Amino acid sequence: MDEFRIGIALWDGVEELDFAGPYEVLTAWARGSERPVTVTAVARSTEPVTCSHGLRVIPDASFEELGHVDLFVNPGGRVDPLLGDDAYIGRLRAMADGGTLMTSVCNGALVLQKANLLDGRRAATHWGSYDRLEELGVTVDREARWVDEGMVVTSAGVSAGIDMALHLVARLDSEEMSAKVRRYIQYD
Amino acid sequence: MDEFRIGIALWDGVEELDFAGPYEVLTAWARGSERPVTVTAVARSTEPVTCSHGLRVIPDASFEELGHVDLFVNPGGRVDPLLGDDAYIGRLRAMADGGTLMTSVCNGALVLQKANLLDGRRAATHWGSYDRLEELGVTVDREARWVDEGMVVTSAGVSAGIDMALHLVARLDSEEMSAKVRRYIQYD
Prior knowledge:
Two copies of one chain form a homodimer. Chain A has helices spanning 16-32, 63-66, 80-83, 86-97, 108-114, 130-135, 160-172, 175-184; strands at residues 4-9, 37-43, 49-50, 56-58, 61-62, 71-74, 101-104, 122-123, 139-140, 146-148, 152-155.
């Protein structure tokens, strides 16, 4: 089977648990999956990034090195630098046009919508960003842990990225695999 | 008020969510706390560590640089290198003797017990380590997300470190602060 390739974005200001939750779930899937699954922490360059609360992480690859991914995760955190980065937003649009399943955690939904990926779609986001996302014309589901709109999946704040990632494993692999990962991380 | 100092251990093989969950919760507390709270990711040296699933993280300080901490978090993951590291185990014992509140996530409880910190105490751990911890003479609580035994607090597997950290915030600060952090990370 073809390798299933996943990219998780990092940048100076990314919220630690926003990326670490999906990273844990998706790499646990990768470890157990029959189909080869790879998870790459990707950033502007491979220089260390300083996360929102100070954790320093080394990206695995730059966007130039990444190549095609089947699934992309845009965590949240201090997203203003991404919202003002035309090259980054252009990359998101190109990935979506190329068939990548686009996902966000927390206020990462603001970044997806900057690339117009949530036009006409419902979305979840952190409660602190409900109003801002609605002002961008998106229908916000204030109850959902995650919202699956086909080629775009969004989650509520921070820890909800874990729930979304477990859903993605169920959708892309099986309910059994998702339950196995959930049990592994003891997320009851 | 005196600074409240927290150390979270990293090493090659630490499980990503085991440390990132408490890191997120405790740094969110630090951001909102009236009393100064610092969180330091500490390792043998400040060279990057490669976590269990491949994430590379840069420690903030070596153990030599750390100084006294009020709270120490020993995550789980591939713990065998720690279990065989007499200097590391000696450090845990010295911290406990010095009044540090000692905590573990997941199979990190095995490491605490290597320093005999769980003698005569109940503990939580990952379900995959119930038998091994019991063989070391510890009474394992198989139902609890976390077990608070005063100067030693342990949690169940991986994501349960989030629950334990929220409990620690409630105990060390207030229920209100813990609820605030829980709401911030949308951990419902």
